[in-house]
Amino acid sequence: MKLEAIAAFADNYIWILHDGRNALVVDPGDAQPVLKFLADHSLQLSGILVTHHHADHVGGLKELLPVLQGPIFAPALETMPVDCTPCHGGEQVELLGLKFEVMDVPGHTAGHIAFFLPEPEDDSAPILFCGDTLFSGGCGRLFEGTPAQMHASLQRLAALPAATRVCCTHEYTLSNLRFARAVEPDNAELMRYQAWCETQRGQNLSTLPSTLELELQINPFLRCDHATVARAVASAQAAPDVAQASNAPHSTSAIDTAERAVEVFARLRQWKNEFR
After folding, report:
1. Per-domain residue ranges of the chain
2. Distance between CA atoms of residues 182 and 156, nearest Å
3. Contact 139, 269 (CB under 8 A)
4. Of 30, 53, 104, 108, which residue is the catalytic one?
5. What pTM was estimated for this model as a whole?
6. Over the stretch 251-269, which tens digit does the pLDDT of each residue have?
7. Is 170 a catalytic residue?
8. Which of the following is catalytic: 53, 112, 151, 170?
9. 27 catalytically annotated
10. Confidence class of residue 122 from pLDDT cuts 50, 70 and 90?
11. Catalytic residue (one of 56, 104, 112, 151)
């Protein structure tokens, strides 16, 4: 099974999985590049996965219906522009003989879901289609959800196998890494990754997919329980309570620790919103 990214709009990726004959696509915000890819590779569109309702993820659905020979799986809690098979977290859906686990990941939107493929047919690394919840070096804005929801969603994704390929839907990596360096300027792995990404983009090549193992080392939104991130947030926003949280005794309860991580996340996300 081959995994590829179709470029759309200014910085979107529409992910496609195909076996040389049949294909599924993820979040087709624009039908035209999908139709061209299908025609160029003589592929039949056998299914669609949708993570959330934003137009740049669902805008191509109506135009793809005439060539679609299969289901559209989409969030049960969000309104779609066409009829879809509704999905809830904890369910499993099957396309092209592949079994995807549906995960509830609210935050960016209220009903956002992700699709996790733990066992690709070719025994390659697991695949995560995470929409706009997790980006390389960053995370989505909170348009409909709360910081606590988004933090919990990211922690849910962070618990997946380290080798998981992270297939997010925007080429935001360099922008995200500039912010990540402001948060953790001495993070050696982050510096190495930023240099690699700059080379990739300089050659007009994608930085994606990332891996969960890498994101856990360089993405500040997955590192809110790290003292370096908490101190950076405190310094940037004059939040001494956050700084003190990063140095709290190890005997502090798990509940208190989780609450502090959510607070760090909320302030980190606000900092990113204002970062230039």
Report:
1. 2-168, 224-276
2. 25
3. yes
4. 108
5. 0.93
6. 444 546 778 999 999 999 9
7. yes
8. 170
9. no
10. confident
11. 56
| 52 in catalytic set | yes
Catalytic residue among 18, 27, 30, 52: 52
3-state secondary structure the chain: CEEEEEEECCCEEEEEEECCCEEEEECCCCHHHHHHHHHHCCCEEEEEECCCCCHHHHCCHHHHHHHECCCEEEECCCCCCCCCEEECCCCEEEECCEEEEEEECCCCCCCCEEEEECCCCCCCCCEEEEECCEECCEECCCCCCCHHHHHHHHHHHHCCCCCCEEEECECCHHHHHHHHHHHCCCCHHHHHHHHHHHHHHHCCCCCCCEEHHHHHHHCHHHCCCCHHHHHHHHHHHCCHHHHHHHCCCCCCCHHHHHHHHHHHHHHHHHHHHHCC
CA distance 100 to 115: 6
pLDDT for the residue 242: 44
41 is catalytic: no
Which of 57, 104, 112, 151 does the annotation list as catalytic?
57
Q: Which position among 54, 104, 112, 151 bears the catalytic label?
A: 54
Structure tokens at 243: 């700084």
2-168 falls under which CATH superfamily? Ribonuclease Z/Hydroxyacylglutathione hydrolase-like (3.60.15.10)
Identify whether 30 is a catalytic site residue. no
51-90: per-residue pLDDT in tens? Answer: 999 999 999 999 999 999 999 999 999 999 999 999 999 9
